[in-house]
């Protein structure tokens, strides 16, 4: 698989990234190591994780995913140098006091979180260190509107960049990125970095899929003009775009219980569990079948070959899922099918935004 540069950095990543938030919850450690081995064998060089994983977030599994990856590195000498490793510092805890105390994300929090990730990952350096969600109060995770009355920010963006700069100078982080960000946030991080000689963000990790194309409403222009890469997450809309939920209501007790959306009550209450999202997924899934494709093939191919996307983050729970997702790389959508996809979006817009 070919690689491409991430933003203005010298990181070269594959256009498919292995997401790992299921490791330590849905995926036991031996199976996680097998998935990591297979991804590397098939040419994937990019792995993404976070200090708060596994998901759903809870105290007992916080940090478990990084530890599983760290033990994988330790048991396979030489592997670390073959991988572009990305992890994330959690934003303000907001209901997760086991991550940190207080409502903000201070410069000291960023440094402490990085040190913890380095220990768990058993590595000396993180290639891409991302802020998981903004320290500011922004519309994210299913919230549609910005509400200035909820602003409780305590750490200016400049101070966050200074903390990240210290980690870069210390050789603990190579490049920095953002996640779940807005156009304002990206512009401000880039502006302050250029003005003060601080690390420039290489990438933004935001949701992007057939059910949520909100990236195309300003974020695409922002990041294209600023040279910031999109790492697209949830390309299969938490499983809705695989077709396996087509016959169920989102919270139906009969839905496959091993699937993420059936296990995560908080997710069902957010964007992916909306009745409108399931109805839209059924439309797209049938469109795929009508064109001789599986729903998974169409949904992934849509992300894989978008000019807006630098790398698509896939999350799997088995080797079979991994192979299916990687095999979809060879799928190309015809102009007619892309037009049909756009026609559906014009009608139903972004039900999982």
From TrEMBL:
Residues 15-344 form the NADP-dependent oxidoreductase domain. Keywords: Oxidoreductase. One of its GO terms (molecular function) is oxidoreductase activity. Gene3D superfamilies: NADP-dependent oxidoreductase domain (3.20.20.100). SUPFAM superfamilies: NAD(P)-linked oxidoreductase. It holds the Pfam family Aldo_ket_red. PANTHER family: NAD(P)-LINKED OXIDOREDUCTASE SUPERFAMILY PROTEIN (PTHR43364:SF4), NADH-SPECIFIC METHYLGLYOXAL REDUCTASE-RELATED (PTHR43364). This is Aldo/keto reductase. It comes from Acidovorax ebreus (strain TPSY).
